[in-house]
Write a structure and sequence with these properties.
Radius of gyration: 19 Å
Strand content: 15-25%
Shape: globular
Low-confidence stretches: none
Strand order of the largest sheet: 1-4-3-2-5-6
Oligomer: single chain
Distance between the termini: 52 Å
Number of domains: 2
């Protein structure tokens, strides 16, 4: 496995490969990341993983400075997983000058997660496009836990006609249902015991919709109230259509319930897809 820190060295290394598949990460890897790699490996001769904490997608009061940087441990996990190339640049390598050209996503960037994190998806799309240009993969794997991010990047690739297949991967969960996330490490012992409630709330909404409930606004409000009663600060719980995260109509059958809520100092996100029977 090669660990590469510069764009020039990365391009030189990848010239030897007939094709590659790409898994972008911010490091501090967990089993969810390893699942992305397991999905990636059969798809190309070379598996490339990036590790870069992207300042552009963090807001001014978010956790950029305390986000865990664990390259040595991450590299050991990636080597054991059979990764071929790790690209771990520093900030000056990705942004040698102030980034004045940015990717401006569609109006999808302004709702739900984007409403609570202004500029977040602009930062995500900008760095991912830059990484795509460096790695030149034929496919890239993204976890569906970050559902809105997946849609933003899927649409970016389509609208810019990039020759890259975006492959979504199912959320990996702990035995108690909590979606695996780097930010789970911020939780105290007591918060960690409470944290699976977010998944439980999503399951309740999914089950009610599956049983025929169609007052989505009421379901969203009930779910947020349950979280608030148990010490959470919910940003949103919302049943939306999968295609674009807009409110569903009576004809929509492919739905997703998405949620974001703060438990103590830690902000967690999750979602569950819902498929309704044909009308």
């Amino acid at each position: 496995m090669d660990i590469i820190h510069s764009a020039a060295a990365l391009r030189g290394r990848l010239q030897r490969e007939p094709n590659n598949v790409f898994v972008p990460t911010m490091g501090n890897l967990h089993d969810g990341h390893i699942q992305l790699i397991n999905i990636a490996k059969p798809r190309a001769a070379c598996t490339v993983v990036s590790i870069f904490v992207n300042r552009l997608q963090f807001g001014p009061r978010e956790d950029f400075d305390r986000y865990p940087r664990t390259l040595e441990t991450d590299a050991a996990r990636l080597k054991a997983a059979g990764v071929d190339v790790v690209f771990a640049p520093d900030e000056k390598e990705i942004y040698p000058e102030r980034q004045t050209y940015v990717v401006e996503p569609s109006d999808l960037q302004y709702i739900l997660e984007g409403a609570h994190r202004p500029g977040h998806f602009r930062g995500v799309a900008t760095v991912v496009l830059k990484l795509f240009n460096l790695v030149a993969p034929h496919s890239a794997i993204f976890g569906k836990k970050d559902y809105q991010q997946y849609l933003v990047l899927r649409d970016m690739v389509r609208q810019f006609a990039l020759p890259i297949e975006i492959i979504p991967a199912e959320t990996v969960r702990a035995p108690d249902g909590l979606a695996l996330s780097t930010r789970n490490t911020y939780l105290s012992a007591g918060e960690r015991k409470e944290a699976p409630r977010l998944y439980g709330v999503l399951k309740k909404v999914r089950d009610e919709v599956g049983s025929g409930a169609r007052d989505y606004q009421r379901l969203d409000q009930q779910a947020m109230a349950e979280l608030a009663r148990n010490g959470w600060q919910p940003d949103y719980v919302a049943v939306r259509r999968r295609a674009d995260l807009r409110p569903p109509t009576e004809r929509d059958r492919e739905l997703v319930v998405v949620a974001a809520a703060r438990l103590g100092r830690t902000r967690l996100i999750d979602n569950l897809e819902i498929t309704l029977p044909a009308a």
